[in-house]
Amino acid sequence: MSATIIDGTAIGNRIKQEIAAQTARLASEGKRVHLTAVIVGSTPAAEVYANRQGEACRAVGIDYTLQTLPDDISQRQLRDEIRKLNKDKSVTGIMLHAPVPPHIDLARMQFEIDVTKDVEGVNPANIGYVVYGHTLIAPCTAGAVVELIHSTGIDLYGKEAVIVGASEIAGKPIALLLLGEGATPTLCHIGTRDLISHTRRADILVVAVGKPGLIGAAHVRAGAIVIDVGINRVKQPDGTSKTVGDVQFDAVQPIASHLTPVPGGVGPMTVAMLLKNTLRAAEIVLGK
Amino acid sequence: MSATIIDGTAIGNRIKQEIAAQTARLASEGKRVHLTAVIVGSTPAAEVYANRQGEACRAVGIDYTLQTLPDDISQRQLRDEIRKLNKDKSVTGIMLHAPVPPHIDLARMQFEIDVTKDVEGVNPANIGYVVYGHTLIAPCTAGAVVELIHSTGIDLYGKEAVIVGASEIAGKPIALLLLGEGATPTLCHIGTRDLISHTRRADILVVAVGKPGLIGAAHVRAGAIVIDVGINRVKQPDGTSKTVGDVQFDAVQPIASHLTPVPGGVGPMTVAMLLKNTLRAAEIVLGK
Questions:
Q1: Structure ipTM
Q2: CA B96, CA B86: separation in Å to the nearest integer?
Q3: B199 lies in some domain
Q4: Coil, helix or strand for B259?
Q5: Tens digit of pLDDT for each residue in A32-87?
Q6: Which residues does A contribute to its contact with B (CB < 8 Å)?
Q7: Does a structural domain hold residue A11?
Q8: Structural domain tally of chain A?
Q9: Half-sphere exposure in the Cβ direction for B77 (13 Å, CA)
């Protein structure tokens, strides 16, 4: 047996096509989907990332504005900028690029973003709505993982879901979303006593740690669905760099029933989910 | 071996004494802790509950106002009442009694309560802050469970925590708070495939289902800490009623290392946590 490879790029492209169609429908009614991204203290890397994001938006018909603010902006000034965007009826989605300079409290600023415009799903209230089981907008990575699992056709009800890595934007919301579909989630992390005893009982294993090759063959139950959220740049013996996940792909492929590759799994789906969240936010905002 | 009984009444009383001392300190600086509870469409049962709450507040020096609103109040009017309380500087804490009439969206109204005055920790943003690991105000029951576990002196780091029952105000925030202390949480519920396989590996077993006697001896690992959140009224053979938990107390006592009774465990601690949250909210609000 060899795992079916879950093609995140293909699934992401299908979602993007649906978004493009819906965005075009809204545009024909004179309704524009418009994401404004805020960068505080720009760096070349942030610019490159933001530009790619802008291209991804425009490719599906979403207007994209990048607002770059000086790195010495005060927290109060940044708050006022966000509040301005909250009130601006032409802006349907807002995201604040991380990292921000050390004098800015990121969580405090995320709380300022209107919950209905919060395309990254990072406002604590949106996280709270995930807990409450009536998700408004879920964090992009968590949404991506759920979509990839859905693509296998599995019914999550009653399944054992083990999530390795308990971060705020990945592991925790992933566990809550899978719980919402009836799975029994276990959240493992660096302090977990016997990791392998958990991962081996997983029907669905999601790994979001950022440690290359953390999960090998011995960690995986036969027939499990394995979603690899890790994106790690590693140096190879010949000096070149390569992107790998947290899962030993070649070792796990003979055991799992479904497996995401890195790159080409969660990564492209996360971009698609940002666009989907942006559309969803716009539908809420414009529907008001 | 026989489990140590965790005395929620005694622990709750100790916490209440600390609250009374701190409330008196604030009062000596002219700062009043003032909880306003809102009931929509009063019933005799709600009145009894609210009156007890008022007594508990006054016993520790907290001012208590009960605001009863007609059961045909519109959602907009109720929202405006909450907003008035948010702005009222003499009110340091707000709670909205559940249940509310069917035409009122409870979650929507909870979202209106200022996060810093939300003494029940039910605003989705406060739930979100629990997920983010920088809890402002945690739901009372969840906070009570964590305090009771702390009273045993156990270090939660690396421990297996199994929570049975995945409700919004108990199971889910309990799992997140225990995760925040380094435990590895598993959240079980009605759809869990093999409940006993989970409960048997728990170092800490928290049961919050509302099903009398759900957990018996076979479910419990030797030496586990067992916290029983269930409060069930059951008819006895002689026709009288009795309050029991979700755990078969007599069966589990010889196996567990620590065990909460029902009544006298989580119940009185939940009241103490409401008072603690009320004080905490006041300290935040008055410190502004």
A1: 0.95
A2: 13
A3: yes
A4: strand
A5: 999 999 999 988 888 888 999 999 999 999 999 999 999 999 999 999 999 999 99
A6: 107, 111, 123-134, 157-160, 166, 168, 172-173, 175-176, 179, 182-189, 191-193, 198
A7: no
A8: 2
A9: 9
